[in-house]
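ARCHIVE CARD
Drawer: 12
Card no.: 0347
Subject: one protein chain, sequence and derived structure
Cross-reference: see card 0346
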Amino acid sequence: MTNRWKKYILWFAQEHLDFRVAEFNSILKLFGLKHKKLDINLMKPFWIVEFPNDEEVMKLASRSVSLRSVYELWSHSKHLGSFHEKLGNFIANNEDLVEPYTKSTFKIVVETYNKHISQKEKVEKIETLDYLPLHGAVDLKAPQNEWCYIEFYGLDPSAVSPEPEDVLFGRLIANGQRELIKELSLKKRKFIGNTSMDAQLSLLMANQALVKDYDLVLDPFVGTGSLLAPFMIHFIGYVLGTDIDFMMLHGRSRPSRITQKVREKDERVRSNLEQYGCGDRYLDVIISDFSKPLWREDIKLDAIITDPPYGIREATEKVETKKTSKQNTRIKDMPHYPSTSHYALKHLYHDLLNFSAQHLKVGGRLVCWLPYHREDYNHDMIPQHGSLMLVANSEQPLSGLTSRRLLTYEKLDVLYTKEVAQPACTFPISLDFRDRYFNNGLESRTERRLRKAEQRELGRIEALKRGKAVIDSKELKINLNKSCFT
């Protein structure tokens, strides 16, 4: 290991741009990494950062899913002419750094961002680097060392400059964890639902929660357990989950896959984890109403990571106790289904922050999503708590009108009391996300349904006039559903 600080190219995937800094800072804190920011434009895929040694930057790459690759920087310039001059000077002034690679097998990769070039042009660019002191054999399949020549032509595909805005060259140090996105894809999961979380976002949440080996992680709105798999597979964590939906936890709800009519007998949360060979770190999932916590007051968690229901594809419900009950409506052997009522987002986040403040260890993190309508957003909407510090706030657009924010809180070393540390949540009841989602347009959801029903009826009448046989699609759908259960 050397104490000589070196410059590196961090090449990020050009997606989820608002999450880069939060994940980067979280991994730095997780490993206690030192760095110096040199040339960072948050919108560009290439950052130039200085680290003490290769081992430090390899730790970053071992966790990051936003990062494509890390290269040791040998030359960087805004102009092609000065690029070759700087690369030549680097080689001349760093013979001790260059010498170990002069006789090893190698390959040089050419990458152009925002501009396509032919294979012939790539070879021509490699030939301009013939002054490199690389005397080993070329090996395109399994080289001992790999170099990358990069030309960056801006971010606007409609205004590509004739000359590159940045030219970079470096030696490959490590790749990020992008392959995990494909490995943990929902398409390969045995058990999924309507709201199963995308694998990449699940991994980002784990990094922002500082999840490390043998941590205890809770998802209080676990659903199909899509957030649990990355923690146990990649980070060797132990997981717990709770949810109010009995049918979902036990795999008895309607399948989400179009081609699947009935769920298999072994489809459940545990199935996904056994599928990846880590069922031994699955503690349990519990049927629970989050508004009425069942945990001991002294239980401590390393992280809480969750995606609460928004009331769109999954209902936001809590158990409600009736003040008056009907007489003579139940028999002894009849199963009991408790009454539920709407669990407003304001009250849900109030309970979530209180629960986290009480049960997280000091330094533990809560990572959760907050949906909102873009026109309504202001920073005062973000729930706050006296025992929790907001350390990251990243936006993911959902549609032209709606978005959601990934909020990351860290437990402070502050004495928690139920009386003092109440969250200052200014989420207005009038801005209910579900109501705004369905009734934000020029017509409400009810008006839209009535209008479409009138259109269907007019179409049916016109078809009858033309002598066409009209099929009752509603009755056909009912009969089809009945046939699935007979």
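Annotation on reverse: The first helix runs from residue 20 to 31. The two ends are 69 Å apart (CA to CA).
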